[in-house]
Amino acid sequence: MTAALHNPKFWIFGICLFPLVRLIVLGGSGGLGANPIEFITHSTGTWTLTGLMVTLLVTPLRRLTGRAELIRYRRMLGLFTFFYACLHFITYIWLDQFFDPAAIARDIIKRPFITIGFAAFVLLIPLAATSTHSMMRRLGRRWQQLHRLVYLVAMLGVIHYVWLVKKDLTEPLIYGAGLTLLMILRLSWGVMLLQLARNRFVPARF
Amino acid sequence: MLIRQPDDILPSEITPPDIYRERRRFMQGIGALAVGAVLGATPKAQAGAKLTGAHASAYKLDEDGTPYKDVSTYNNFYEFGTGKADPAEKADSLKTRPWTVAVEGEVGNPGIYDIDALLKLAPLEERVYRMRCVEGWSMVIPWVGFPLREIIRRAAPTGNARYVEFVTLHDPRQMPGQRSRVLDWPYVEGLRLDEAMHPLTLMAVGLYGEVLPRQNGAPIRLVVPWKYGFKSAKSIVKIRFVERQPLTAWMRATPSEYGFYSNVNPEVDHPRWSQAKERRIGEFFKRDTLMFNGYGSQVAQMYRSMDLKRFF
After folding, report:
1. DSSP per residue, A18-82
2. Residue B147 to residue B127: CA distance in whole angstroms
């Protein structure tokens, strides 16, 4: 037990459960407001986007701190992101459309924000399915190529959010700015910037 | 396409619609008028205070009313922020007294009405209406108010008056949401004169028998039950009679998505989402959205020759 408590994965797992636990607690105490289903849909959606951002933060953070071991936590973050994407999708097909396949198909074809959200969800599936060690081994170099899809997924996710709001774009644009920054940090001069920052501010470890 | 129902009430300019529809209600109205005149309804300004003198009307529904808590905490009122909970949290800064409503424009009898005079202008009645938001949710709300046409009649519109424009208070100190440019302030809405004169069109000053909470548009707001909720302007300071169709706040913001009429119509989708169904607040399953929000038998004739897909 104490060994588990010393493993950061234990704590990260707990933190990643927070959005779900919060929804359950709020649901039990009537805290989801007048329109609980809208609340759940919105909450699982924004937590999926947050999960994508946090997962994409691992590599820049690793470059900034020089702590290579951070990569060990990325899979869990990615899988939790997929978990919340699943909850978001299930909320939509169950609580919003009540498993009406015709209505869902119509929505996916007719509503651009649904089309794009659905595409992002579908693209996440192969990433989740190939997250195991054995799949990494089997795919070799192609694994990394495949997992670059996550950039596209994150972009589609942000556009999905931008296209659904009625007027106030503040929140979607915050995610958009976050994603833009994360992408810049992956460009060659972004990586150089991180190196510089590391040499300047992060004390070397002995 | 409009489907005329057998209980359609034919438009009649000769017989007052009240009598036409139901003699009993007319009699009730006469009684209430007398009571109202004797008691002289003088409600207190504070939200939650009982509105005395309001009488029941024939405008009732067989559907359950949405709980007061939901009606007063789940609001779209961008003057206080774009979140649904913002109005209830931030509307305390709105001062509803003193308050005046200017009636102006193409009228023979313009004037500035004090809110307390407006409360006594006509007998207050309780009307239970469906409220359908353009976002796809709905409520059932017992409003207290009086028909807008009571004001219009006194204003005596001229022959040039074809539309009525409603303007909400513009004061960023009282309405912190107006510090953001999310809409072009002040909020402007409009109706065609016949829509404004329609007996269903209500000026609401209360809900659930109490003074209107600020977040619901105190001290006086419009309620047009067959149109999407945003047409029902809140915290009104000006009613202007005009010749040309007003440019409303939402038409100015997104002309491709919000038209002047904005009648509830399950067959005309919002460009980005379907309007065929709605979630009634408090219910698990979605309901089918009704043409004109279920008020077709009273209002459909006003749009008889119009292509409602074009005039959305």
Report:
1. HHHHHHHHHHHTTTT-S-HHHHHHHHHHHHHHHHHHHHHHHHHHHHHH--GGGGGGHHHHHHHHH
2. 10
Cβ pair B254:A167 closer than 8 A: yes
What tens digit of pLDDT does each residue of A162-192 get? 999 988 899 999 999 999 999 999 999 999 9
Element (H, E) at B56: strand B55-56
DSSP class of residue B45 equals S
For residue B250, the tally of other CB atoms under 10 A from its CB is 24
Nearest CA in chain A to B184: A167
Residue A135: both structure tokens together: 């799949």
Q: How far is CA B14 from the centre of its chain?
A: 26
Q: Which CATH class is domain B17-303?
A: alpha beta
> Sign (positive/negative) of CA torsion B3, B6, B12, B18?
negative
CA A183 to chain centre: 15
Domain boundaries, chain B: 17-303
Chain B positions touching chain A (beta carbons under 8 Å): 69-70, 73-74, 78, 82, 84-85, 134-135, 137, 180, 182-183, 253-254, 272-274, 279, 281-282, 284-286
Residues of B in contact with A34 (CB under 8 A): 69-70, 73-74, 84, 281-282
pTM for the model stands at 0.85
- Look up residue B70 and give its two tokens: 């939901």
